[in-house]
Amino acid sequence: MIEAVGLTKRYGDKTAVYNLSFQVRPGAVTGFLGPNGSGKSTTMRMILGLDNPTAGHVTICGHPYDKLPNAPRQVGALLDAKAVHGGRSARNHLLSLAQLSGIPARRVDEVLGVVGLHEVAGRRSKGFSLGMGQRLGIAAALLGDPQVLLFDEPVNGLDPEGILWVRNLMKSLAAEGRTVFVSSHLMSEMALTADHLIVIGRGQLMADMSVKDFISHNSADFARVRTPDSEPQQREKLSAAITEAGGHVLPEQDGALRVTGLPLPRISDLAHDHDVRLWELSPHQASLEEAYMRMTQGAVDYRSTTDQKEGLQQPLPPGAQPPMPVPGQGQPGWYAPPPPQQGGQPFAPPQTAPAGPYGAPVAPASPPAAPVANPYAQPPQAPQSAPQPAPSAEPTESEDAR
Amino acid sequence: MSTPQPPMPHSAAPQWPAAPGAAPSAPAPAYPTYTSPIPVVRTHLGHALASEWTKIKSVRSTLWTLGVLVALVIGIGLLTGMVIAGSDPDLGGESPLSLGFFGLLLGSMCLITLGVLTTASEYGTGMIRTTMVACPSRGRVLAAKALVFFLVAFVVTVVCASVVGLVHVSLLEEYNAAEPSAEEWLKGTVGVSLYLALLGTLSLAVGSIVRHSAGAITVMIALVLAPLVIAMFMFSPSLEDVQEALFEYSIPNQMSVFYSTSLSQSGPSGWDPLWIMLVVTGAALALAFTLLRKRDV
Hints:
The complex is a heterodimer of chains A (402) and B (297).
Chain A: E1 2-11, E2 14-24, E3 28-33, H1 40-47, E4 55-60, H2 71-74, E5 75-78, H3 90-100, H4 106-115, H5 130-142, E6 148-152, H6 160-175, E7 179-183, H7 187-193, E8 196-201, E9 204-210, H8 211-217, E10 222-226, H9 232-244, E11 248-251, E12 257-260, H10 264-273, E13 280-284, H11 288-296, H12 396-400
Chain B: H1 45-57, H2 60-86, H3 101-125, H4 127-134, H5 138-172, H6 182-210, H7 213-232, H8 240-249, H9 251-257, H10 272-294
């Protein structure tokens, strides 16, 4: 049981974690998610008493970490796989930790066997691969056979076999009634491993709920509808009908429509009623990754932008199309499909956009319909065929500015 | 995997030490908990000492620095002894123990390096976070480090100094060298070794304060050399007093006091250097303890 109350940490004038309160319960794997620099590691360091919180407190089984009698027997942690002295052999590293908390020396060989490092136990950890380092770190966490376990990015650098092993290890540890708190960036991994999620962004709590609830609360489930490409008026007719029926329509780049707020049979009925043929009507299930991206898109500190290659590109020959960008690359709003339902949408951005060309409200961060033309690669003569720069591809600064 | 069997409701399982005065009828937890079958012991300084002993003997830097120390002290000691014996000198009643000074002066650099590395290398590698998670009583870790290092440094130095002293006495007794008294033996072996072990412990404290190996070693070497070098360039007569104090209290001169061959007649004498170093090291350790408690790891 880990309990944080009003946890705050400031480094100078930068607030890494602000007023964070949560509980991590035993018997379940709790995932700890957040973008880079959102304060995950800082929170874990405060739980382990490495950093002193500026305000608030965090307890494990009711005690602050440094007041726990024999802390490593209660709490095991993998913070950083590289936090070992590389000149020491794996066995000696674990032995020194075991001696520090009065754990019998034979336990060292046990955990070396558990993580599969018994054959390289005598080798200096300097020569370990990233995956072997992770295994050594996990061995150190398991050494005290603790009831609370913290893992910071445990599958970093592991091979598929190792990832599967960690996944099963987490689950079996939780099944034994232990508290397992895991941070990770790998959403697919979290979806498979975690029972419960704690999501932070910019050091503040964004969600504390079960994985199932998280996905359904932030789901971007939608139906993809495609009308015949040759008859654009059919598409507009269907869009209007769906909007009238209470659904939301968002045109996709290739001419398909993303429809939310209406069940699939209803869309089919509407199309039939308005005499519109459908080429595609497919359900699109949101993954944890999409739900996560959707929730944290406003809280990302480090975001990539499109590589402009300033002044380095040859001017495009007149009439040539600039290459289509890969979806999601340098497009802040890519993971922001329109909100699926009105209300019940705790983290949806406010809907203030004017009506779009198809009569549907356009989400402020809609996927850019036209690729942004490279401003440095414009041919000198005004191009008729080159697409105009998209009017607003939601500049990154506006999201980051607070 | 060898995870112990699921928790059984056996009452002999290790329990939290009940806080004095706490009601025994604490509400039973509503969730399942795990209890390890491995008995939980209350940890103390002894555990930390065992851990630090494992640490110090399982890295190569210990072997390197102490190996170089032994080579320098014994090598230079033998060399000076044989050169002097070969030139058929008249020592005029000088104590032959003082010839061990040069080797130990150079060897002090090894102890400084090892002392700094004992603490600072944990910061350099990140090991300190693993250590502090395994032992939240930070002061205990530093105390164990200082004790283990001090004992290792003292034992190695005193053995080397004694060997060199015995060799010098047996080589030079026929050249009118004085037979060292018991106190001279004590000062020339145990005394100077305690001084050097304390100097190493001071480096350990500095390493814990600076938290950077190269930085801390630089600070310590400057501390040893700077006073002498600065004093050498103080030509102005108005600075004579300062110059003399710098000479007298420089670490090489304090070391030579243990052989009664001080560069000057005033200044520290007898066992004074040991007390000076004890106070300085104690102050540095106190600062290291305070900072360790206050700073984030």
